[in-house]
Amino acid sequence: MAKLKITLVKSTNKCTKVQAATVAALGLKKIGQSVEKNDDSAIRGMVHRVAHLVTCEEV
User: Fold this and answer.
1) What does the DSSP 8-state code read for residue 21?
2) Are 5 and 27 in contact (CB under 8 A)?
């Protein structure tokens, strides 16, 4: 199964509570932190919701 590397590039200070919760659910806490997640529709939806805060690339 393919993996996605998700990196937090912007702060969650001014975003909505739902967006901040989505970033936390992805496992991201600090700017520059990266996580690898399995590529499935749930993760893709989470990344789409906070696309302005994160970068995503296939690994």
Assistant:
1) H
2) no
Judge contact between 52 and 10, C-beta under 8 A: yes
Could you tell me the pLDDT band of residue 1, with boundaries at 50, 70 and 90?
confident
Where along the chain do its domains lie? 3-58
What's the pTM value of the predicted model, to 2 decimals? 0.92
Mean of the per-residue pLDDT values of the chain: 96
Tokens representing 25 are 């659910």
Helices 41-49, 17-25: inter-axial angle, 10-degree rounding: 140
Class at the top of the CATH hierarchy for domain 3-58:
alpha beta
